[in-house]
Amino acid sequence: MSGTSVSVIVPVFNDQENLENVLSDLRNQTYRDFLVYFIDDGSTDKSASLIKRATLRDKRFFLFSLKENSGQAKARKYGLNKVVTPFVTFLDADDRVNSQWLEKMVEPLFRGTDISVIGYDMVITGLNPKVRNGPIDRSEVLHGHDQIMTEWLLDKQLQGFLWNKMFRTEILRKSTNEFTFNWLEDVAWINSIISHVECVTINNSIQYHYVQASGSSMHRRLNANDRQSYLVLSRQFKQFSLKGSGKIKDLVDFRLVETGLMFFAQISFRDVFRVKKEKEVFLGAVRSLIEKPKSLHRFSAVTIIFLKIIATTNLVVSMTRLRLRLLRIRDAIRY
Question: Is 88 helix (H, G, I), strand (E, B) or coil?
């Protein structure tokens, strides 16, 4: 379709329950100049047939089917290879978007930005449904390597999700990320392109609704494929230290620790001896931060206590899992 500006990549795996919502959200976009690539990742339900029917009604919709389930990372890369438009974004098939989702993101790209970021909230379903606003608290424009890298490493305004961002396709294709793990794969992807980015526009208007089932896979145990993620991410983060200021180097340690707290909390006790190298990297970053007390202020008081215990005892998996359990209890009381 000549002249079309935006492609939306939607990986699908057994998402028939929400697909009608997704299709409706896409049809209702105020910005109309887009294509949608649905990548069916080996679904065994009616997802493919629902999408196929939708492609007959809307010529902007396309269905591509993978022979077997390969994971979201591979499905997204497959979709990116199909893109012919200058801009691209992503939508998860179990989420929802407002009608101005594309319009709000594409406008800054027409003005020359490289990545456009939009606000989001988290919708927790289940017996006690809740909605929590995401951390993007202000609209701003980031220019230059140090400012963009600072916000990326702080993991607040510029978080590691693909679905609340629109990219220049040429920049996203510069990715050197060939890994296929599905834990924080978005972070690995953005890590591999962020050095090519000169301008990021952030709009705190909430247009994306990230739907998470209560007790979902966000806290599942990591499999062998996903356990490779922490070392890959740590190598990527450490590359930023080589080119950045002293502040960037401190933020790299912060991000290594923040990521490690999530990673080790999802490691099963039977896999403790399979993550020795990861543990060494994590402990090194923890001790580096503790030696610079001013760098610890980005963590909560409870997390600082846990980090000091971890640095002293080396009990990485048990302490990170205990910390996560306490945070869940806190959140259940607070929300």
Answer: strand
167 — phi, psi (to 5°)?
Answer: -120, 155
Percent of the chain, pLDDT > 90? 78
Q: How confident is the model at residue 11 (pLDDT cuts 50, 70, 90)?
A: very high
pLDDT digits (tens, 9 = 90+) for 171-217: 999 887 677 788 999 999 999 999 999 999 999 999 999 998 765 54
Rounded distance, CA 250 to CA 168, Å?
29
pLDDT at residue 294, as a whole number: 82
Cβ–Cβ under 8 Å, residues 236 and 123? no
The dihedral formed by the CA atoms of 328, 333, 334 and 335, expressed in degrees to the nearest 10? 80
The one-letter code for the residue type at 286 is V
Q: What is the DSSP letter of 191?
A: H
DSSP 183: S
How is residue 295 written in tokens?
A: 């760098």
Q: How confident is the model at residue 246 (pLDDT cuts 50, 70, 90)?
A: confident
Domains of the chain: 6-218 (3.90.550.10), 221-334 (no CATH)
Q: Which residue has the tokens 């594409």?
A: 106
pLDDT tens sequence across 85-107: 999 999 999 999 999 999 999 99
At 16, the amino acid letter reads Q
The residue behind tokens 């590691």 is 160
CA trace torsion 315, 316, 319, 321 (10° rounding): -140
Q: Which tokens belong to 231?
A: 């070392």
Residue 125 DSSP symbol: E
In angstroms, the CA 240 to CA 317 distance is: 27
Quick check: 150 pLDDT over 70?
A: yes
Give the residue from 194, 137, 143 showing the smallest Cα distance to 167.
194
- Single out the residue of 242, 228, 284, 260 nearest to residue 149, CA to CA: 242
